[in-house]
Amino acid sequence: MNRRKQIYEGKAKVLFQGPEPGTIVQYFKDDATAFNNKKKGTITGKGVLNNRISELLMVRLGEIGIPTHFIKRLNMREQLVREVEIIPLEVVVRNVAAGTLSQRLGIEEGTMLPRSILEYYLKNDSLGDPMVSEEHISCFSWATHQELDEIVNMALRINDFLSGLFLGIGIRLVDFKIEFGRWYNGDDMRVVLADEISPDSCRLWDLKTNEKMDKDRFRRDLGKVEEAYQEVARRLGILPESGPSDIQGTKAIQ
Ligand code: TMP
After folding, report:
1. FRET label pair with 99: which of 113, 119, 138, 254, CA 20 to 30 Å apart?
2. Arithmetic mean of pLDDT, 37-64
3. Which atom of ligand 1 is nearest to the CA of 216?
4. Which of 177, 200, 232 maximizes ligand 1 atoms within 8 Å of its Cβ, making it the mutation to test the pocket?
5. The dihedral of CA 218, 37, 25, 90: what is its sign?
6. Residue 239 — pLDDT band, cuts 50, 70, 90?
7. Helix, strand or coil for residue 176?
8. Average of per-residue pLDDT across 222-251
9. Between 3.40.50.300, 3.30.200.20, 2.40.110.10, 3.40.50.1240, what CATH number should domain 6-84+225-242 receive?
10. Cβ neighbours of 26 (radius 10 Å)
11. Quick one: pLDDT at residue 251?
């Protein structure tokens, strides 16, 4: 029973044509994948929580002047966003060594970095999202120099703001991945923050215990995955009124 035209199905979200031209509905699934789709699973209620968490973070970032694709949340699992042309880069910002940085360079997980590091990965599943440099990005015209300048600026501001926001609720923002898109508005084009920001795309560690509160619990089979997402939502003050039992929500698509 499809109410509208499906545009794209990704690993964690489905995109539908929005009600107005230039808008898109983002539907958040409970599906989880890791290691370029090699590991698959379900995190019950994840879609509902990520919809709420990403809404809150995008709205807050909008308030400090970061342009985003977010328009409004529609229901438990869907949000209305502006249609953008996704820049084919995953921009990763790191504050603490973890994940592939630790693996690749042999730096112990948890080592504080003396300065934040920005990395770029080409969005290409069949190549396994390879890391690329600014040289590759401009050589192959994935983004212009000016766009990349804006992306770096925004990524660092987003990092500062989100690090402070999470610190305030006892969470260390270890690293995160963001994506940007080109929003065409008449003759005007703006680079805006797109996709989502959630425990799927961030590493979040409890400030006191260093306990992982993000998708690494799924990637590394650490257990208590659902509970970790719920705890992040609870600390952000957005767990649904009726508590975790309410988070499966009504299915907007079957
Ligand atoms: P990494 O250490 O595996 O390179 O991941 C860095 C950050 O990017 C981490 O917060 C998880 C996030 N991430 C995604 O959101 N999607 C991905 O496909 C990958 C590989 C990482």
Report:
1. 138
2. 98
3. 11
4. 177
5. positive
6. confident
7. strand
8. 79
9. 3.30.200.20
10. 25
11. 43
Token pair, residue 29, equals 């699934």
What pLDDT, in 10s, does the model give residues 207-216? Answer: 999 999 999 9
Q: Do domains 6-84+225-242 and 87-206 have the same CATH topology?
A: no
Of 165, 124, 152, 147, the C-alpha closest to 37 is 124
Closest C-alpha to ligand 1, atom 7: 176
Give the Å distance between the CA of 118 and the centre of ligand 1: 12
pLDDT number for residue 240 = 61
Enumerate the domain spans of the chain: 6-84+225-242, 87-206
Q: Which helix (H) or strand (E) holds 33?
A: strand 31-34
pLDDT tens by residue, 129-180: 999 999 999 999 999 999 999 999 999 999 999 999 999 999 999 999 999 9
**Mode of pairing for the β-strands spanning 171-185 and 6-9:** unpaired
